[in-house]
């Protein structure tokens, strides 16, 4: 079980953690850097404009280190002059208006898990910390809930479950509600209910000019379309109203571990069981490859966790198919209440990947089917890379969160790329190491790109990367979709709502 409790938990957590709330960034030119204000100036001038519960911290403040913690640091280290802990929507407005007035960038953060390299281009900026806006309220009819822009997944899961409800969130309890949703949001529930973005009913947004608006099907519908899938480009979400569902059925988790000699059979079996069971309900297949020297001292091994809700008519086909491969271990945990699912499955706040200040670097790809030969080529590189103790905790994600729920949502209903609906398999080597050595970083980048190239080499579909996993710098069609009319619409809306590219560092639409 050592393999399960460490590497499997890391892999399960990584999906949402990469997309955690990075909701607003402002660009900064050279002339602005020349007039960079001090943190004390920002505190003195902005502080009186904010609500009583808000606070402005500067580098010498006792809270500064706590506010600067990031999951992907020190590789990702935006440079701030001040941090504003906002408590109201008006605080967000005042902060953005002030930043615009003095000509400095801003970055909105809840959990601090954004990983695109372009975040490092933020200098002399203001952090807008959303964590004080962390309330959750269920509507009187019990069909929706509203979460604050800073609410974390563990908070909304616990709050809703006390009332017998659940929402389509991310996959890790130490990330925000907003971050994964704005980029689409894969979920334990998507096989039945669609992406997190598909479940957004309305949102309150503070725009680049500091104005606050509602985005919904009835109000600002174009903006509502855009923020569901490309939301990091358009505004700061101060609250989100989402659909909720009854959380009455318990879950089951089945865990397999395989040695690498089963790799080709493993991926071919995965393809076969999904081919034979098109509508498999709420079943999540979440696997990874990683090091466990107690099982194999030379190569990484393969782990697979299958989660399903309630009774499922096809789960027997899945378990028997993978059991036939001869796993090293096979464990089943039953009767897991939804409120405990993330902790039990290794996705809770104490999980390995929720540790602070460890570099995370991913090279994602999405496919409609596994190519076993290509995965073997990538595995060989991954095995070489993780043979170094420095990188030995890296994990290669192998994910399928369900198809029918996302495929039944019309592709033109929001800005989630059509490829995310068509290519249900996600894979990414997630390279993980501590420290700030340039040679380590260069080695990780080199191997990551080679692994991505290897798994894509035989693909009959154009390259696609899920935006919440994006490394930064990918071509726009690779993350937002290859339909020209869709990209043109996104660019038009970007020009309308953010003409000066104030939200311009997180996979920007330019």
From TrEMBL:
The keyword Signal applies. Residues 1-19 form the signal peptide. The keyword DNA-binding does not apply. Gene3D superfamilies: 3.30.465.10, 3.40.462.20. GO terms for molecular function: FAD binding; oxidoreductase activity. Keywords: FAD, Flavoprotein, Oxidoreductase, Signal. It holds the Pfam family FAD_binding_4. Residues 76-247 form the FAD-binding PCMH-type domain. Its cofactor is FAD. It comes from the Eukaryota. Belongs to the oxygen-dependent FAD-linked oxidoreductase family. This is FAD-binding PCMH-type domain-containing protein.
